[in-house]
Specification:
The protein is mainly α and 485 residues long. 82% of the residues lie in helices and 2% in strands.
Length: 485
């Protein structure tokens, strides 16, 4: 026990000399008020995301188990097309709402949200009509089996994106319990729809999107009804909101569009070498890690407004980024161990023997949520600081490497190449985001340290010193005048 007594004597000295950051970091987890607040809001956030993810997980398992691999691959490609549309909606409406709703418009947030909802229905409807016509004509010429699924995906997009918008508004208001209630309603509605389709033997890729749209619409309306009534004291100006969202979203739009490639490019190119069956296998594997990815995504939505509020306080901002990264990565590591222990039995229980040939992908698959957890926090830090330009550059480089190197991996190793490519993309995105954050801090330090030019006050009545003589310049009482030569 001698080492314990020595540690007690040495700890205060070490803490006072060189461990202020460690003490501040540990204080994040010893403050009882902070712990209760995080447990309350974090628990509801995880429940909300778990319910929505549970409905999507149930949909994925049902489709992967009962649909032919060809049809499930078609659904996966169509869903990737819907996510591409989501990359246009999220940076222009949802992400700016999380940042500006917690800062500039926090006192008039209900009026601000009502204005964003109107913009959503006016803008997304026109985009979906155009995309439905364009993709329908292209799909008829290339892959006819894609047309019903793509048409259903783009028809369901306005209702799904509406649900995403109102769900995230609950996090700005600090009311994740309302989002969880909406998640429960969506889960019940979608489960009832799936079982009805299964009993009627009408389950297909297109009908699945119809069920998702119906459940999302019902849950979105329910969330709006559950929000507390508010009498608006002021209304934001539409032009000011559009200007702010475009100023934020023009780079975030590029970043979001480029971020689609590392996560979905492999689903699109796999049919070229392995058919839709290979795409179905990769999607079936990704379903296994969707719960932890969705849980960390929910916690990330909770952290983003906090990061936006403390972006000017560098020590607190840094502690919040570090503590969030450690927490999310720890949860992902625990899930990785669970996947290694129970993954084979889980695959057999969910899919039967349909995808049993891909069991050896599980160790590689489990590393992906750990890397994605750190990547999500670092990218959220860049968004909270408003540095979407750097984020766009990072995503552009990663997307370029994904299209080139990822395609080569898929061509060589099939679905395993997709898993390896997703893992490498997460590593590159995390490294690039960290370098962008450090570069932003370094630029800010250089701007503060730059000395300002001293200006000597001129006595009253004194004339300014004459400028030096320049050939071809005549002097007058108003300064130099250029003359022709």
């Amino acid at each position: 026990m001698l080492w314990i007594s020595k540690a007690r004597l040495l700890w205060p000295r070490a803490a006072s000399n060189g461990l202020p950051f460690l003490r501040a970091f540990l204080r994040q987890f010893t403050d009882l008020t902070t712990i209760r607040n995080w447990l309350w809001k974090g628990g509801w956030a995880i429940l909300d995301q778990g319910l929505f993810a549970g409905a999507n997980f149930l949909l994925g398992v049902v489709l992967a188990r009962w649909l032919p691999a060809q049809e499930f691959g078609v659904y996966t490609v169509a869903y990737s097309g819907f996510l591409l549309l989501g990359t246009l909606h999220t940076p222009l409406l949802t992400e700016p709402m999380l940042v500006f709703g917690a800062t500039e418009y926090r006192h008039i947030f209900p009026s601000y949200l009502r204005m964003l909802t109107g913009m959503h229905w006016k803008g997304v409807g026109l985009v979906c009509i155009g995309l439905s016509l364009a993709t329908g004509s292209v799909a008829l010429l290339s892959q006819r089996s894609l047309y019903p699924a793509l048409a259903a995906a783009f028809a369901a997009a306005p209702f799904i994106l509406f649900s995403w918008l109102v769900r995230r508004s609950c996090y700005v208001e600090g009311r994740p319990e309302i989002a969880a209630c909406g998640g429960m309603i969506c889960f019940i509605a979608m489960s009832a729809g799936f079982f009805a389709l299964a009993l009627l033997h009408r389950l297909s890729a297109a009908s699945a999107f119809a069920v998702i749209a119906a459940g999302s619409a019902v849950s979105g309306v329910a969330i709006q009804r559950l929000m507390p009534p508010h009498v608006p004291s002021a209304h934001p100006q539409a032009r000011a909101v559009l200007r702010q969202h475009w100023s934020y979203g023009r780079w975030a739009l590029l970043a979001s569009g480029l971020s689609w490639a590392p996560a979905n490019w492999y689903y699109v190119v796999l049919p070229v070498w392995g058919g839709f069956e290979a795409t179905a296998a990769l999607r079936a594997l990704m379903i296994l890690i969707m719960p932890i990815l969705q849980a960390n995504n929910a916690l990330g939505l909770l952290v983003l407004p906090l990061l936006a509020n403390h972006r000017e306080n560098r020590p607190k901002f840094r502690r919040l980024v570090l503590s969030s990264s450690c927490l999310f990565a720890g949860l992902a590591c625990a899930y990785w161990l669970l996947l290694l222990a129970a993954g084979p039995k889980l695959m057999v229980w969910l899919y039967g023997d349909k995808y049993g040939a891909y069991l050896y992908y599980l160790p590689w698959l489990g590393a992906l949520p750990v890397l994605a957890a750190v990547t999500g926090v670092l990218c959220g830090a860049l968004r909270a600081r408003g540095d979407t330009r750097s984020l766009s550059i990072v995503y552009a480089l990663v997307a370029l490497l994904t299209v080139s190197g990822g395609t080569a991996l898929v061509a060589s190793f099939g679905p395993l190449g997709g898993v390896l490519g997703l893992t490498i993309s997460s590593v590159l995105t995390a490294a690039g985001s960290l370098l962008a954050i450090r570069r932003g801090y370094h630029a800010a330090d250089c701007a503060v340290a730059m000395p300002e030019k001293s200006v000597t006050p001129r006595p009253a009545g004194a004339q300014a010193a004459a400028p030096p003589y320049q050939p071809g310049v005549a002097r007058s009482g108003h300064g130099p005048v250029k003359v022709g030569i």
